[in-house]
Amino acid sequence: MSLLRNLATGVRSLFRRNQVERELDEELGAYLEMEAADKMEQGMSRKEAVRAVRLERGSAEIAKEVIRSASWESVVDTLWRDLLFAVRMLRRNPGSTATVVIALALGIGLNTTVFSFVNALLLRPPEGVKAPEELREIWMHNPRDSGAQGYMPLTYPDYLYYRDHNQSFGGMLVYDLEPHVVIWNKSGDGQTVFAQLVSGNFFPLLGVNAVLGRTISADDDHPENPQPVIVLGYGFWRRYLASDSTIVGKTLMLNGADYSVIGVAPAGFTGLLVGFEPDFWAPTAMVEQITRDKGRLSNWGVHSLIAIGRLKPEASTDGARAEASLLEHQIEMDHPDLKRNLEATVFPATLIPAPLRVYVSAFTSLLLAVFGFVLLIACANVASFLLARATGRTREMAVRSALGAGRGRLIQQMLVESTLLSSVAGLLGLILAYWTAPLLLALKPASLPITLRLPIDWRVLVFTVIVSLICGVAFGLTPALRSAKVQLASNLKDETRPAGFRKSRLRSLIITGEVATCTVLLVCATLCVRSLRNASSINPGFNTQHVIAATLDPGSLGYSDTLVRTFYEQLSEHVRALPGVTAASFTDHLPLGPAREHTILDPMHRASSKSDAIPVDILRVAPDYFQTMGIPLLRGRDFVSSDGAEGSGVAIINEALAIRLSKNQDPVGQRMTFFGEKSSTEVIGVVPTGKYRTIGEAPIPVAYLPQLRARRTLVVRTSSDPATLLDSIRREIHSVDPNIAPTNLETMRQYMSLPLFPARITGLLLGVSGFLALVLTSIGLFGVISYIVSQRTHEIGVRVALGAQRSDILNLVVRHGLFLTLVGLVFGLGIAFGAGQLLSSLLYGVVPTDPITFISVTALLCAVTLLACCLPARRAMRVDPMIALRYE
Amino acid sequence: MSDKPSDLVQGTLDMLILKTLALEPMHGYGISVRIEQMSRGVFCLNAGSLFLAIQRLEREGLIDGEWKPTENNRRARYYTLTAKGRKRLDSETREWGKQAAAIARILEAS
Q1: Is the pLDDT of residue A634 over 70?
Q2: Residue A174: beta bridge partners?
Q3: Neighbouring residues of A699: CB distance < 8 A, sequence distance ≥ 6
Q4: What is the ipTM of this complex?
Q5: B41 touches chain A (CB under 8 A)
Q6: What does the alpha-carbon distance between residue B14 and residue B96 come to, in Å, rounded to a whole number?
Q7: Residues A436/A109, Cβ–Cβ less than 8 Å
Q8: Would the CA dihedral through A444, A446, A450, A454 be positive or negative?
Q9: Which residue in A650, A662, A664 sits closest to A703, CA to CA?
Q10: A138 close to A343: Cβ distance less than 8 angstroms
Q11: Of the four listed, A50, A161, A385, A750, which is most buried by Cβ atoms within 10 Å?
Q12: Cβ contact A315:A167 at 8 Å
């Protein structure tokens, strides 16, 4: 009550200051009048009475000031006045204000951009979900593996057991970790769509209701009798079905079977997995029908389901974790034949699967650190700018101080100015982030089916506000403290000229730090960009210029083996007949992609040899694959179509495997046995070692086998630009079987953007940050050197008067600038030396101590320094001794 | 200058103002004169600290101010004690009595 009254009075006096002021005047006046009147009654003259009152009561003005400054609104009032004054001061030299604000805005903006990714990936809860903080993820963990490899999701039988036996969760749902690629037969045209399979309690447990129709229910998801029903994603419904309001009850033909639409999910709801917006949801129990993978629901080996539980209010995460481990042990007791020795654990659920979170946060914190450095440089510029201004305003501060402004008041005023600067910059930075964040996302290869929403929500806003305020206060404080430390007498008497070097020591320190930071950034950026160039010029071991690839999966339509074989034979004939095609073949997956088949060579097959088991990657290819991909056959022969039969027992190996297999002998004709196979396989040819998993890998032993499955990737060699043939190949696939739609139909060059993407994006971001750092540092250098020149005008005038040549003056200025840079460089190179070691795992073909990088960064910074010295030096050379000395 | 007015004990000015206003509504000068008279010239108030205290009391809702003509046909702001102010005065008086007695006992003991 009294607080409210206090507030009301305060606000009244803020906005009706004149009236409040008048009332105070009148009241005080009346007081003094009455007292004077009393005194006059006692016989004093009016003049004497007024004088006596003054003497006794003190000045009315001071009394008023005391009364005024006691109330809270006076703080607001002075802040407001300071703000207005700050605006006036900053507008007085708009050029340098704009430079500083823009530099700071770039720094804050880029950090906000990176943070909006951090927010979207790690902080934001899934949209449209009720009480997401109660959700927990359940993972299985192999204690013998470290890192993310040790974690795996649940199998369907695991899920059923956990769901029915736990006490901690009010309900447990599952969804498929991997999206299912499904072919939608849209009146004769095949189109690929992405499905997420979810348990029957998925929607109810998340509290998500359909905007149209209903969601999937537990009855739809019964393993004995699953229903072919789907819930459409809102985006899919709007884009491909034109928001058809009568869609419920209609059927879509998916992978050759009819599914009836039972509902549409609400806008914004995209499930629980970041980056993936399912086109539709179907019951988990339909998995065997959709993937044509029989027995998957009862298989204890297919770890594909992410389980999410809603923690009961009385349960704790630790309790749930202990219980999950217990349940896992019970499963292993009930099924000793599984022999899996796993543990189970529980994490809070976020949009990124828990085991991957640490990698994502490591990468984003690296980016935040890099852009944090850029911001630091921008802030150093602000501090330097404010310091220069503070020095120029010592007289003003002295006057204010003489008029009774306290130290706190002076500091407050300077801080208001720096905070104003940083707030304007923060606002601009927010606008910048709004534009650059989607731009950054657009850099990803088109083939990456990732959708990521990057909203500027309250978390991003809070981040920006905090960063801006910290910048304003932290970097305004030093200049503020310094300017509040005025020596009244000396400053008011005359403006003593500061003697150049010593007085600008703080600014020199700042600029040295700036150069050091910039050096570190530039070295890291150059190392990464050089490594990137090396990486993109690596020969992956196959032709990337004249090859087209397309993935096909007739198996998903339920075709028999014979039908599959016929389809591929026909397609192969059709494609080879196209003009411009010189060869065509198939593989089960392309190297450098996400797919992988891995086994080991059984060491038992060669009892004489003491070598351990050899791990090998398997690629399955059709005849002519090597010719199509431009891989030369070093020895032996290529596959022929008869090799493709099951159990033909032949393989082609790469050199890396050949060396492991037999040091000096001819590998062709050697026999090897794969783990778990009874008969041995004969090596019929050798090809050079290429890149298979990542572009920077060490040689990996690989065996090519001729047996292919229903899902294959078509590879086509063209004689001219492959991009012109994409459409004809799509047409040929359609003409052979209109139900089959190719996925990832693209040229090999487009395909290669995926494995090169991480390096490319890192290189780009580092390049941008290095460039910005350089620009900001040169602005800072320019500012400091101009300032020093202006402070030393008098000294330069004296030197010229005493006979110094223009070249001497040039020397003086440039030497000073270079000195500052060199000190910064020495520190920066030292730190960069250490930082490079941290980067070494990311670098390809460049050592972290790469001399070219270090030398070129040094040269670049020196050149920039000379450039920054140029203008101030010219001004210094033109100093007229007469004017400079007379100014005294 | 030997009988210079004493400074008020910290925090007692509010209580004195409330006490003065408990008798009858009064303007600032009246309060000051009344306190000076009742204390027989021991306490002499400075206009600044008096109005500071008045402003504080008014904001706390202990007193109410109102512009009224004075007996000499001048305009002045008259302050009245509110119910809340009366309660505060009672509690402060009691508290003060307790403290003063305690201090007196301590001083007499030695």
Answers
A1: yes
A2: A307
A3: A654, A655, A656, A689
A4: 0.78
A5: no
A6: 12
A7: yes
A8: positive
A9: A650
A10: no
A11: A385
A12: yes
